[in-house]
Amino acid sequence: MSNKLRDIIDQMVRQDYATDAGRKMHARMQRIVIDGDASRGDMDIRAKILENPTLAQMFLPASRTEVPIAGTINGRFISRRIDRLFTDAENKRVYVLDYKTDTDRAAFHDKYVEQINEYKTLLRDIYPNYEIRGYILWLHDFSVEEI
């Protein structure tokens, strides 16, 4: 087998592994609920989430996962799923959280920022009197980046 073919196959295997790992981590994140003694999901992940108060509120029982959203931005139809959405009616805020499993933040950062901004734009139509805040949760180190 040529080196070029071997490189292509190796790259495909790495990509499949990364995609599968990302899918599994997203599934684990969907099951997390922070609710005192009634908390659910992976205990280690919950502990990491609880270290960040901004992040912790997005995992309260009222938060929703895999929220479908669609609309038109600049004449272009967009249909997406928000990893986690939390609406704070008391303070008139909506929090959008998107999970990313990449270890190289720079690789797709612009694309991810655009994605969060699309969510925020679409949500402004749904929640016109609310402040919309968007975040990326980098799962490799559980750091949170506000967009």
What can you tell me about this protein's structure?
The protein is α+β, with helices and mostly antiparallel strands and 147 residues long. The chain has one domain (3-146). It contains four helices and five strands. The protein has helices at 3-30, 43-50, 53-57, 109-126, and strands at residues 64-73, 76-88, 93-100, 131-138, 143-146. The chain has a five-stranded mixed beta sheet, sandwiched between helices. Helix 4 links the parallel strand 3 (93-100) and strand 4 (131-138). The longest helix has 28 residues, at 3-30. It is globular. The mean pLDDT is 86.
Task: Note the main attributes of this structure.
147 residues; 4 helices; alpha+beta; five-stranded mixed sheet
Could you provide a short overview of the structure?
With 147 residues, the protein is an alpha+beta fold. It has helices at 3-30, 43-50, 53-57, 109-126, and strands at 64-73, 76-88, 93-100, 131-138, 143-146. Strands 1-2-3-4-5 form a five-stranded mixed sheet, sandwiched between helices.
